Amino acid sequence: MAAKRAAAALRPAANGLKASSTQPRCYSTPQLSPRRLSIQPPRPRRPAPLRQPSVHYASSDSKGEEPGKTGLYELHTRYGAKFVPFGGYSMPVQYGDLSIVDSHNWTREKASLFDVGHMVQHEFSGPGAEAFLQRITPSSLSSLPEYNSTLSTLLHRETGGIVDDTVIARLPDKFYVVTNAGCREKDKAYLTAELESWKKDHPDQPVDWKVMDGQGLIALQGPLAADILGRVLDPQSAHALQTLYFGQSTHAMVKGTDTQVLVSRAGYTGEDGFEISIPPYATEAVTQFLLDSAKDELRLAGLGARDTLRLEAGMCLYGHDLDDTITPVEAALSWIIGKDRRANGGFHGDSVILQQLRKKSEGGGVSRRRVGFVVEGAPAREGAEVVNEAGEKIGNITSGCPSPALKKNIAMGYIKDGMHKSGTEVEVVVRGKRRKATVTKMPFIPSKYFKAPTTK
């Protein structure tokens, strides 16, 4: 039976239909013939009582519609997942074998596997792809090497507000772009309108946009991630991981098969790790292969642990820490704006953003800044007000939770410029009571990314 399930899981999917260059179309995977990839049933594990997560996670944007399911929904069910609506999908928040805190700690100590297949994967190609993406983001994509990526933001034309945050990678003949599930419809409308405008302005530089519907995406995170991933790749691909640094990608072959995946050294937890884009027909098989290869080191993890991990790592969650009214400068993301873009502009909202980058003496600066907080007493949640000694509002909390690693209550939010320096003492109103808080640098814990050695 296991062999039959593996064969079915690896059966190539039908090719998608071609669409116009300004509309998304389904991603067509190459006809990869499987050789051997066995799937064993999940190993029974002692269940732990499911507890309601104490962290905040976004609700579905599906407006009453039935949540979608990723390609790993059945696998999650077999492993005892508890589901919640998130970004229009039914997503696991935790599993029966570990509490949220235990899952968080497991990730920091060993490795966890997250299903992020709800996120939207895109490909942009054609003669105008680079220039088009540089128009709608502040990134220096013209100098981005092949198989390298950068965090970026889609921007509103006039205000420089953040439409969505995104990761953009340059591949040999295209750009691979990942956006948030909760912004799916908004991003679709935005990109459609922007491509129509681009086509009118640059008819000689066409752009082909593909939405990779059904493509699997998993995140393998933790100090053991590289060892675990190396076990399921063919020798050549496994060897390449040794010099694959944070922010870099490679195409890799799954051991014993003709299945090719895109491996990116990246993540949302502050740990070393990888995001793995998998053809739709092989998503469950490859994920099960990973789990079976490291039964004592790897566990599935859900949105609960993902939220506490990302907050310790100082990572933003769109719709909470970022939105359409916030610019990259206000969000402490000025580092994503390339040097050449600062000098030459040429991207949406550049007049606003470049002015914000100037010194206050030159009329620049911002009125608010994203910062971290350590809060005494009860944890501060989204919406809590930050006040000064006189009780005057000077900011607000956008994310907050108890930190399993620090054993302190941490939070992220925005504060009035001038009060944003690390060590500044403020107060946060929690359940009607003013709690002492201290402005703190982020990330809250040291990042453990596998980075290229620096040259002096």
TrEMBL record:
Q: Name one GO biological process term.
A: glycine catabolic process
Ranges for the GCVT N-terminal domain?
72-340
Compositionally biased tracts (Low complexity):
1-19
* Catalysed reactions, as listed in the record: N(6)-[(R)-S(8)-aminomethyldihydrolipoyl]-L-lysyl-[protein] + (6S)-5,6,7,8-tetrahydrofolate = N(6)-[(R)-dihydrolipoyl]-L-lysyl-[protein] + (6R)-5,10-methylene-5,6,7,8-tetrahydrofolate + NH4(+)
The subcellular localization recorded is:
Mitochondrion
E.C. number, please? 2.1.2.10
Superkingdom of origin:
Eukaryota
| Biased composition range(s): Polar residues | 20-32
Q: Which UniProt keywords apply?
A: Aminotransferase, Mitochondrion, Transferase, Transit peptide
Its subunit composition reads:
The glycine cleavage system is composed of four proteins: P, T, L and H.
Q: What is this protein called?
A: Aminomethyltransferase
